Amino acid sequence: MNKDINFDFGRQNRIGIIEAIWGEHKNVDQLKKICEKVLYKNELVFITRINFDKAKLILETYKNAKFYSEASCLIIGKTLKKLTTNKKVAIVAGGTSDLSVSLEAKLALEVHGIACKTFIDVGVAGIHRLFDNLEDINKFDVIIVCAGMEGALATVLGGLLPQPIIAVPVSVGYGVSKDGFAALNSMLSSCAPGISVMNIDNGYGAAMAALRIIKNF
């Protein structure tokens, strides 16, 4: 076993959250060593931001691994301590371009035992699409909103529905909006009071914020 990897095995017992493995800036050898250590402890492997090339090599080693390409996530094993709750999370996305961040949030919630549903392509550019789904979205206990461009979707929902809203700026859009900073600043400046805002593209962080809320309902 590799003694240099200090994985936080006590995190779930301490705060109810599984430690995710950041895949983007780790090489395959590092990821395999972490997987080995986590699986040795019979814990779930949940890797975020992993690309196809890295995932392919992990899949060759661990036949029971599953790669979710649209979410850029890889999972090995099952969560042994899922949360028992009837609370549900809606994940609302402005467009298909926000899908990767939305699905990252969805997977992160599901491995913890949280029921959730995605509502995709309901952005303010065609606001009738949002209104068509508003009644269904209102049935959920927490709402995660993923949006790029100017990120107005979170404010609109914040003005219409009373649930906790977690906004995630997404790095899509033309010109000044392409890296997500326009959406981030818009969400931080929202005139709808009480909206929480994550960092750019942080679907996992939004899921964990929703989990903390649900655990304390």
- Please tally the helical runs, counting DSSP H or I stretches of 4 or more residues: 8
Q: Remind me, CATH topology of the largest domain?
A: Rossmann fold
Q: Structural class from helices and strands?
A: alpha/beta
- Give the strand line-up of the largest sheet: 6-5-7-8-9
CATH architecture of the largest domain: 3-Layer(aba) Sandwich
Mean pLDDT: 91
Distance between the termini: 40 Å
* CA-based shape: globular
* Number of spatially distinct domains: 2
In the predicted model, the low-confidence regions spanning at least 5 consecutive residues are none
Text of the CATH class of the largest domain: Alpha Beta
Cα-atom Rg, whole angstroms? Answer: 18 Å
Characterization of this structure:
- With 217 residues, this protein is α/β, with parallel strands linked by helices.
- It has 2 domains: 11-76; 88-215, Rossmann fold.
- It has 8 helices and 9 strands.
- The strands form 2 sheets. The protein has a 5-stranded parallel β-sheet, with helices on both faces. Strands 1-2-4-3 form a 4-stranded mixed β-sheet, sandwiched between helices.
- Helix 4 packs parallel to helix 8 (203-215).
- The protein is globular, with a radius of gyration of 18 Å.
- It starts with 10 loop residues before the first helix and ends with a helix.
- 43% of the residues are buried.
- The mean pLDDT is 91.
What are the defining features of this structure?
single chain, 217 residues, alpha/beta, Rossmann fold, five-stranded parallel β-sheet, four-stranded mixed β-sheet, 8 helices, 9 strands
